[in-house]
Request: fold
Amino acid sequence: MTVMQLLTATYFMVAGGPFGLEEVIHGAGYLGAALILIVTPIVWSLPTALMVAELSAAMPEDGGYYTWVKRAMGRFWGFQEAWLSLAASIFDMAIYPTLFVLYLSRLFPSLGEGAAAIAVGFAMIAACAALNLGGARSVGGSSVVLSVLLLAPFAVIVLLAAPKSLMAAVPTERLPLTQGGLFSCFLVAMWNCMGWDNASTVAGEVERPHRTYPLAMMGAVALLAATYVVPVLAVSRLGVPPSSWTTGSWADVAGAVGGRWLMITVVVAGMISAFGMLNALVLSYTRVPVALAEDGFLPKVFALRIAKNDAPWVAILVCAACWALCLGIGFERLVALDIMLYGLSLLLEFVALVVLRVREPDLPRPYRVPGGLLGAVGLGVFPALILGVALWSARGDRVGPVSALAFGAGVVLLGAVVYAVGGLFRRRLDG
Reply:
C-alpha cells in the first residue's frame, strides 16, 4: 500500500466523512460541536496516531497491535489484545450495513426493512469480501476513489453554504448544555475519532512502512479534523436549529442549499461512507486471525493466503460469514460498549509502547514519538483520562437488560477464560 492508499483506508477505518456528527450538533450546537471536534482529534486521535506511527514503522508485521502487545508483555496479553479487538468487531461490523440500508431507503423505501434490508446487508458484506480477496492494494485503491466520491458533495455544500452563513443574520441557537449532555456529545465525538490502530494490522503489506506510516497517520488526522469541522461551521448560520439535527440531516441541509440533486448525492455519499468503512475494516480485522494462526492460537488454515496478492482468503471468508450472521440481531450503535472494548485494547498498546522503549531501547525506530521515554509515557495520559471520564459518563447505557459496562466486563473476562481453555486444549493435543 502507498501513502495515499493507507491514508484513505485509515480515514475510512476511523471516520468515513461527517456522517455520525448529527448527535454532537444536536446536543452542543454548531459552535459547541465545532469546538468539541477541534479538541477531540488533538487530545484523543493524535496521541494514538503518533503511537501507531512509531510501532508500525518499528515492527512492520501483519497483526499490528497484537504483535506489539505480545512482544512487550507476552502471549497472554497479546491474546487479550486480539480478543478485545475481534469482540468489538462483532458489534461494530453490524453497524455499517445498517447505515448503508438507512441511506438507501431514502431513495428506495422498499429496501429499508425486512428481508430486503438483510439481503442488501449480505450483498454489501459479500462485495467488501470480494474487494479484500483482491489484496491490500485493491482495498487501498478503492479507498482513494471512495474518499473522493464521499467528500465531493460536502465540498459543494461548503462552497454553497459558507457565503450564505457569512452573510446571514441568524444567531446561533444557545442550547442549555448540561454536564451530562456535554459528556454525551464528547462520547459520540470520541466514537467518531477512534480506530487509528486498525491501520497497523496490514503493516506487512505497506510499501516502505518506516516512511509511509508517519505520513499517512498525520495526513489522516488532518483530513479528519478538516472534514469534521469545516462542514459544521459552513452550515452553522443557515437557520437550521441544532435541535432538529438527527441521522440523515446532512441530506436535508444539502437539499436546502443545493436542491434535490445535491441531496441525492449526499444520500449516496452516506452509502459510500458505510461501504468504505466496512471495506477498510474487513482489511484490518482479518489480519488478526492470520497472526493468531501463525502463533498457534487458531488452526493454521487461517494463515493461508492467495499467492498472487497475499490476501488471507480463509480469514476473510470466515470473518465475513460471522459478520453476516450478526445482521439479523439488530445491534444499535452501542457507543459505551464500543469505547470500553476499544479503550482497554488501546491502553494495552500505550503500555506496550512504553515497555518496548524500556526493554528494547536499541530497536530500530525510523519514527519516534518526541520527548524520549517521558514523551512516550505522557502520550497515553490524555487518552487514559478521557477514557475514564467517558466510561463514567456512560455508566447508565444498557445492552438489553444489562449495563453496557457490566456486559463489556463480561466480554473482557471471557477472553481470559478462552485463553486458559485454549491452553489446556493445546497441551492435550501436544501430550
In short: Residues 3-430 form a domain with the Amino acid/polyamine transporter I fold (CATH 1.20.1740.10). The chain has one domain: 3-430.
